[in-house]
Amino acid sequence: MFGLYPAGSNWVRHYNATATARLLQQDLVNHARFTAGIFHQPFGANRGAVLAQRDSCLVLTDSTHSSQPELVVVPDVEMQNLLWSFNSGYANQWSGREIKVLTGCDNWDSVLRRASEQFAKVCDDVQKAVDGALVKPAPAAVAPVAACPDPVLSASFYNDDDVPWLPSDYLCDSPIPGGAPCDL
Questions:
Q1: Could you name the domain of life of the organism this protein comes from (predicted)?
Q2: Which of 15, 41, 135, 171 is the most buried (most CB within 10 A)?
Q3: 74 in a structural domain
Q4: Residues contacting 145, CB < 8 A, separation 6+
Q5: How confident is the prediction for the chain on average, in pLDDT?
Q6: Is residue 103 part of a domain?
C-alpha cells in the first residue's frame, strides 16, 4: 500500500498495529512528544495519511478507520528530498548555506547523523506504541527542553554584509510625474 518513497527503502519502517489509528495518535502525542497529524497525504493518494510527526519524521497510516491499521515511519517531505539528492549523487546541488538553513546542520555528515538518530528514536517510540508499552515519562525524569535557536537567525554567514548590485538609476524618481496613466 505505501510503496517506495524518494529517500529509499533504508528510510522506511513498517508496523502492524492492533489499536486504532486515533488511539495510537493519542498515545504518541501524550506520551512521546509527537505532534498530531491531520491525516493529510503528503506523498499523494494511497501513500499514507499523516498520523503524527516528530523532528523530521512522519508516522503514516493506511487507514483512519481500521481497527488494525498498518503504519509506516518515513522522513518528512523536505528530508526525503535531501536524502534523495544525497543518495542519487546530487548532494553538490545544495550549498552549505542552504543545508544550514534547511536542517540547522553545517554539512552532509551532520545531516545524515541527525536524520539517522531522529529516525531511530521515532521508530523506537512507534514500536512501543504499537506494542502498548509507551508510557508517559515520570516528571522527574524529563529533562527541560532547551529552546533551540532559529538556525537562520542565530548564525551569520560570511557574506551577509554584501549589498546586491543595483543599477545607478534604480532609486531615481520616475520621469513621468505621478506615475504612468492607466490608459497606456
A1: Bacteria
A2: 15
A3: yes
A4: none
A5: 83
A6: yes
